Amino acid sequence: MLQLQYIKDHTEEVISRLKIKNVKDVEARIAEIIDLDAQRRALQVKADAVKAEQNKIAKEIGMLMKEGRKDEAEAKKAENGKLKEESVSLGEQQAMVERDLNEKLISLPNAPHPSVPCGKSEADNVVVAEFGVKPDLPADALPHWELCAKYNIVDFELGNKITGAGFPVYKGKGARLQRALINFFLNEAADAGFLEIQPPLMVNEASGLGTGQLPDKEGQMYAIPLDGFYMIPTAEVPITNIYRDCIVDQKQFPIKHVGYSECFRREAGSYGKDVRGLNRLHEFSKVEIVVIEHPDRSYDQLEEMKRHVGGLLDKLGLPYHILKLCGGDISFTSAMTFDFEVWSAAQKRWLEVSSVSNFETFQANRMKLRFKDENGKMQLCHTLNGSALALPRIVAALLENNQTPDGIVMPECLRPYLGFDRID
Predict the structure, then answer these.
(1) I need a surface site. Which of 56, 139, 263, 360 has the fewest CB within 10 A?
(2) In this structure, are 241 and 320 located in the same domain?
(3) What range defines the domain where residue 77 resides?
């Protein structure tokens, strides 16, 4: 959530930055927020004045009673009664205005960093770097879903029988590949100084609100209404919420966590060739890195996280490029995001495997995640996260890019975890 004071102090800047995200009616929405805040403040002034008058009259009543002037005291009591009714009415008006103000603030997306490129959709994202060499596969190379069937390592039909489309069953070497990737990613993160967390797979509404999944992505989350829980779309949600309502010591910065979890997403509206096989699932495995950082160093940290993700892809031998997301594709909560996409040689297309984002103070303001600066003043932290990495499309690219007539060759870095060097 954007800070109200910042909106008031930097109104034109906030409007300009939100226009990068193509926020509709942004001037009117910001004006409404400022107006509601003015109403809230005016009501508070009135409420304070009424309370002061009540206190004054209460003292007068006491004096009158001591002096035996009961009739005058009773008149003052009647006057105070009317003031009490006015105070209750003002309190109700304040509560209503504050609820409206909070709803407007909650529904306003994060203001992107000024350097985020303008654009309407993913077509306007900017490629900032490309690494690796795309493999030259024969014309009869198979897409990963056919390789999964050929080697009996992922069963999509069985998953459909047990649960439904988008819930595959991993078998044999396919299951071992999943486990190997998870352990490889976790160990690499631990070597980079991230503390491993194994989070719950369900969160409450406060956690969803804290990281910005609610109310923005409510339709994409699996809800459990009876208990008021949501299945997590990413480990970012429970791990970041560890620090909800916390004041951290700035000596702790950067606070670095990594966690593996299953992720659950409804992916409503997804269809066509982009959802074949492992391209888009409702349940998938992912390793997530989360960092709580000092505001002055968060963009340096973003670069470090990008290097970490790139290093994983380098070791896996996967060609990839990095995209700087435009305003039309960046998320509701993010101030800046870089996507990593790997080349899927049989499909001949790029597949997103990671998003690395800086949320600046947006999540911290929602969560009341703060620190005291060197002057003892309370400040909001910056939060960042990134996929390091999401498994399904990594598996898809590994299978397709490394296929040979004699089987699918596994990267050297995974072999100690797998216990085999090829799938055949």
Answers:
(1) 139
(2) yes
(3) 4-106
